[in-house]
Amino acid sequence: MKTIIIIGAGPGNGTEISKRFGQEGFQVVCAARTQETLAAVITELKEQGIEAVGVECDASRRADLESLVEWTKEQYGQIDVLVYNASILHQASVLEVSAEQITKEFEIDVLGALHAAQIVAPDMIARKDGAILITGGGAALHPIKSLPGLSIGKAGVRQLTHMLHDTLKDDNVYVGTVTIAGEVKRGTALDPKNVAAAFYTLYTNRTEVEKVLTAE
C-alpha cells in the first residue's frame, strides 16, 4: 500500500484530496494544526472506509515537519506522495499590512512547502520514485488587493514548484501544482472534489508542472 501525507488536511480541499487518494488505495496521513480539525477529517474518511490517521503539525515549524515525516516512515516504511496544502488568509491593505504578518504567511505558504520538500526529497531521489504536490492559487497570476500576504505567498509557491520540478525531474521525482484561480465553493467548477481530481490527474499523468483551475 502506498502512503500519502496531506499537510493542511482541513475541511474542503484537504479532505477531498485525502478522499481521492484514499479511494485509490493509499494509506492517508493527515496533518493539521489542531486535533479538532483532524478528528473531523479522520472521522469523515473512516466513514468511507479509507485508512487514515491524523498527526498534529504546525507547517511553519520545520521541526514539526521533520517529526511528521519520521513518524510516517516508522509507521509505513516510506512516503510515496506529499501534498502541501497549508496556507492562511489575512485581509489588509498592502500599505497597512505589517512585515510580521507578511512573514507569518510566507513561513506557512512558501517556507513550509520548501522545508517539507527538502525533508522528503532525499528518500525519493534514492529510490528514483515519488511525488510532491503543492496547492497554488490564482493570486500568483493576478494579485488580490485585499490579500497581500496570500498574493506574495502564492507567487512564491508557484516559483518554488517550478524550481523543484526542474531540479527533481531527472531523478524521476514528480513535482506539480494545482493553481486554483478563484473561490473554492461546493457545486461550482472549483468544488473541492474537482480540485482533488486535478491533483490526482497531475500525479498519474506526471506530464505537467502546473494545472490552472478556473471558475469557468
UniProtKB/TrEMBL annotation:
Q: Which domain of life is it from?
A: Bacteria
Which Pfam families does the UniProt entry name for this protein?
adh_short
What family is reported? Belongs to the short-chain dehydrogenases/reductases (SDR) family.
Output the InterPro entries linked to this UniProt entry. Answer: DHB_DH, NAD(P)-bd_dom_sf, SDR_fam
PANTHER family attached to this UniProt entry: 5-KETO-D-GLUCONATE 5-REDUCTASE (PTHR43669), ALCOHOL DEHYDROGENASE, PUTATIVE (AFU_ORTHOLOGUE AFUA_3G03445)-RELATED (PTHR43669:SF3)
Keywords, A to Z? Oxidoreductase
Q: What is this protein called?
A: SDR family NAD(P)-dependent oxidoreductase
